[in-house]
Design brief:
This protein is an alpha/beta fold. It has one domain: P-loop containing nucleotide triphosphate hydrolases (Rossmann fold, 3-Layer(aba) Sandwich). Helix content is 36%, strand content 21%. Strands 8-9-10-5-11-12 form a six-stranded mixed beta sheet, sandwiched between helices. Strands 4-3-6-7 form a four-stranded antiparallel beta sheet. A hairpin with a 2-residue loop joins β11 and β12. Bound molecules: adenosine-5'-triphosphate. Residues 49-50, 56, 58, 76, 78-84 line the site of adenosine-5'-triphosphate.
Length: 343
């Protein structure tokens, strides 16, 4: 997969890896950012919600780099700040203090128009609830981000991705005619289609049975190995995290563990020592939440209209998409609900 060149920006940034200031405008000529192995990073990132007595510190001076061509899993108990970190990294939420960079561009200094542009050009999203447009076919959903950003369609790349995710026979189906696993594979293909610098995946297997989870996670891992894709994935599931090259554990808004190429057993051990996670414990003892659908297609259409639990920040991505979709699609293929078009 052809990797992005570093982008031109007028901002100056400091990599926590090197501690050296660098002018991002020079990166375009030296291509320094494609060599330093870092696709995105946060520097002294804090996020608080509320004020005075009701203040909640979701992220507490976090410094973290995400490797290019790596799959990084973010784990941690409920409320530890996983989603907030991912949303700040993806430009879906605004830091209270500190900085966020993607491809050397300072996300934390961007206005709304620049953020929208960044999300369209550099970032792919995969959500727990799939967020496919129900009125579009699988093929149309996969191609939608390119239509929105008016990018040319690389048919060879499309054919390759569709083959890898095993959707060749399902391209004409709408989401309601696909299983949950198939819908998430459509979402994976959609995220990959625009060749984003980094894919942010928020509990991508949270609504899937274990077989479908394995398929989706294998695809994500293969996309890292075969195409150098960079992926940051939030998950509660140690099994899902074991597909990652690196596993970070958050607790109370701080990174408490940083594991490289950990085994499933090592992740379990660390997770137990950290006090575990009630959501994971609830699902343990037979994969109860997910096994009901295993071996059949009972999850057909499960995701439709299932985005009500999304934070406003995530819905913003959908609004970006919908504004453009109105001009990029014919009237018969327009989404009916703006939040359903989150890409
Ligand atoms: N919009 C908000 N307003 C107020 N508090 C918030 C908001 N979003 C998150 N928080 C708080 O910030 C903290 C971190 O939340 P976050 O959603 O990032 O945690 P998480 O680790 O992703 O949790 P979960 O695993 O349950 O999704 C929590 O205490 C949460 O209640």
């Amino acid at each position: 997969m052809a990797r992005h060149s570093a982008k031109i920006s007028t901002s100056t940034n400091t990599s926590p890896a090197t501690g050296t200031a660098r002018d991002a405008s020079s990166i375009a000529t030296t291509d320094a950012h494609t060599d330093d192995g870092v696709v995105a990073y946060a520097a002294d990132l804090s996020k608080t919600y509320g004020t005075k007595d009701a203040i909640v510190t979701a992220l507490d001076h976090v410094n973290v780099e995400f490797g290019r061509g790596q799959m990084t899993a973010i784990m941690g108990p409920s409320g530890s700040g996983k989603s907030t970190l991912m949303h700040c990294m993806a430009g879906l939420d605004t830091p209270t203090s500190g900085q966020v960079f993607v491809e050397g561009l300072e996300v934390s200094a961007m206005n709304q128009r620049q953020l929208t542009d960044l999300r369209r050009k550099e970032i792919g999203f995969i959500f727990q609830s799939f967020n496919l447009v129900p009125t579009l076919t699988a093929e149309e959903n996969i191609l939608l981000p390119l239509q929105i950003s008016r990018k040319p369609i690389d048919r060879a790349w499309f054919d390759q991705i569709v083959k890898v995710v095993g959707l060749e026979q399902r391209l004409g189906h709408r989401p309601s005619q696909l299983s949950g696993g198939q819908q998430q594979r459509v979402a994976c293909a959609r995220a990959m289609m625009a060749r984003p610098s980094v894919i942010f995946a928020d509990e991508p297997t949270g609504n899937l049975d274990s077989r479908s989870s394995r398929e989706v996670l294998s695809f994500l891992r293969d996309s890292v190995r075969d195409y150098g894709q960079s992926i940051v994935m939030v998950t509660h599931d140690p099994r899902a995290a074991s597909y990652a090259n690196r596993v970070l554990v958050l607790a109370d808004g701080q990174i408490t563990q940083d594991m490289h190429e950990p085994t499933y057993e090592q992740i379990l051990q660390v997770f137990a020592a950290e006090g575990g996670d009630e959501q994971h414990r609830a699902a343990e003892g037979g994969d109860n939440q997910r096994s009901a659908a295993e071996g059949n297609d009972e999850q057909h259409g499960a995701a439709e209209g299932n985005d009500n639990n999304q934070p406003d920040a995530v819905k913003q991505a959908g609004q970006d998409a919908t504004e453009q979709t109105e001009t990029a699609t014919t009237p018969s293929t327009q989404p009916t609900d703006s939040s359903e078009a989150s890409l």
